[in-house]
UniProtKB/TrEMBL annotation:
Coiled-coil annotated residue ranges, if any: none
SUPFAM superfamilies given in the database record: Alkaline phosphatase-like (SSF53649)
UniProt-recorded name of the protein: Sulfatase
Name of one Pfam family that matches: DUF1501
Length: 497
């Protein structure tokens, strides 16, 4: 090749973007070394939760935890659509006493409504058609819809004063999962993968399982960006495990490909990518190498963790008959336990179907049956295996439901609209006080009167239990330092053990 031709090619490569990228390689390389962990870089210092000499696990961007961690992992049972706290957890007998009366303006106090009820002339109060009873040492009120959860109340911490800012599904779910109502931010699991890495080299740090409930089978959809990496490197995105022959898409090799052949292909591909990285300095190239290697290791680890055929009969009896049906909530709860045993950092379950604007009594009965036994079984199963003490389990949706009926109220039927002002979640596991209820709503179940908990407070508390100061885990993007809790959030110290 002539000297002139070489110079022409070099001038094409050294464009403005590549020049700036190469100029930043000194700092960027250091950050990348921390980000990629032990798969590519050898460090002498101890890792986050994995010793430097460990044969498995990868470190995160933090060189050490901000304070001692109470937990190692999170299982987030996200109930998509907005479960009605008034039918499940927040017992309000006054609503039945005043059934059919218009919601007093002094209670509503001008709160904005969705377009589905803003045009109603009246807002008739309606209480639950299901009975409540008291359970546990502290007499926690639980609906008859949740008989299995009722037996577990001494292991659970109910937060009855959750509130959010979003009033519609997409921004509300996005807010809980990413800390922002606007798409484009990293999800909770991605932040944890970035910050403290993984304890298992053969499975992703962040896994996702989806199920569709029977309460409203054609309810609100979910989008893959909810478990996306946002502006973080793609290495940290959630990996969805599907209820199908191929649990992870594009993981299996074509027929005729041997393990040795695949290894040789990956080695050659890694060499080409490394050369590309030396040329352009794009950190996503290193992420790509890591993803190829993870996929190679997952070819063995995923079939093993997804196989539940060898579970004993008493486990299926705990989780319920649906646990044998792939893709159900019960089956996913059982898989969540197996993933927790494999030290997956963040296990996200989404269960759709809670958006019950009409026919709520019939729909929520089905939906509660989907989740009640399996949720309680997951807590009990982790507890009997000694895993609950270092695992946080979270159960809850993006908002609650109104105390008035959407549409026509009849003797045996009603619906409820979205209600962001107050709703209930529960938590269990390491670092959480068991058997308590935190926060309180008024007699109408409409406004919070004691200990409000914002979405960012919940996120800050979860990160605190993992040994992370939510204000210090940041990522600089487009000239600004971002964090999961944005510019808000306080640790809920009263619920910590």
């Amino acid at each position: 090749m002539s000297e002139k031709k070489i110079l022409e090619e070099r001038s094409l490569i050294l464009n403005r973007r590549n020049f700036l990228g190469k100029a930043a390689l000194g700092v960027g390389g250091t950050a990348l070394a921390s980000l990629m962990g032990c798969s590519f870089f050898n460090k002498s210092e101890a890792g986050i939760l994995t010793p430097a000499n460990s044969i498995s696990g990868s470190k995160g961007a933090l060189s050490s935890l901000h304070h001692p961690a109470k937990i190692k992992r999170v299982i987030y049972l996200f109930q998509s659509g907005g479960p009605s706290q008034l039918e499940l957890f927040d017992y309000k007998p006054l609503l039945n006493v005043r059934r059919g009366e218009d919601l007093p303006e002094s209670i509503r106090n001008g709160q904005r409504l969705t377009g589905m009820t803003s045009g109603q002339d009246k807002f008739p109060l309606v209480g639950s058609q299901f009975d409540f009873k008291q359970y546990g040492k502290n007499g926690t009120w639980i609906s008859d819809l949740l008989p299995y959860t009722a037996k577990m109340v001494d292991d659970l911490c109910f937060i009855k004063s959750m509130h959010t800012e979003a009033i519609n599904h997409d921004p509300a779910v996005t807010f809980f999962q990413t800390g922002s109502q606007q798409p484009g931010r990293p999800s909770i699991g991605s932040w944890l993968s970035y910050g403290i890495g993984s304890e298992n080299d053969n499975l992703p740090a962040f896994t996702v399982l989806l199920s569709r409930g029977s309460g409203r089978p054609q309810g609100q959809p979910l989008y893959t960006r909810l478990w996306g990496n946002g502006f973080l490197h793609s290495l940290h995105q959630g990996v969805q495990f599907r209820a199908a022959k191929d649990p992870v898409l594009y993981l299996n090799d074509p027929k005729g490909t041997t393990k040795d052949t695949k290894r040789a292909i990956l080695d050659k591909l890694a060499a080409l990518n490394e050369k590309q990285y030396e040329e352009f300095g794009d950190p996503e190239i290193q992420s790509r190498i890591s993803q190829y290697e993870m996929a190679y290791r997952m070819q063995t680890s995923v079939p093993d963790v997804m196989n539940i055929d060898d579970e004993p009969d008493y486990i299926y009896k705990m989780y319920g008959s649906d646990a044998k049906i792939p893709g159900t909530y019960a089956a996913n709860c059982l898989l969540a336990r197996k993933l927790a045993e494999k030290d997956v950092r963040f296990i996200q379950l989404y269960h759709m179907g809670w958006d019950q604007h009409d026919n709520l009594p019939g729909a929520i009965e089905k939906q509660a049956k989907d989740v009640d036994q399996a949720s309680a079984a997951l807590v009990a199963d982790l507890k009997q295996r000694g895993l609950l003490e270092d695992t946080l389990i979270v159960w809850g949706g993006e908002f609650g439901r109104t105390n008035y009926s959407q549409g026509i109220l009849t003797a045996d039927n009603y619906g409820r609209d979205h209600h962001p002002r107050s709703f209930t979640m529960w938590m269990a596991g390491g670092g959480i006080k068991p058997g308590i209820s935190y926060g309180e709503t008024d007699d109408f179940g409409y406004n919070i009167v004691k200990n409000p908990v914002h979405v960012h407070d919940f996120q800050a508390t979860m990160m605190h239990l993992l040994g992370i100061d939510h204000k210090k885990l940041t990522y600089k993007y487009q000239g600004r330092r971002f964090r999961l809790t944005d510019v808000e959030g306080h640790v809920i110290k009263d619920i910590l053990s």
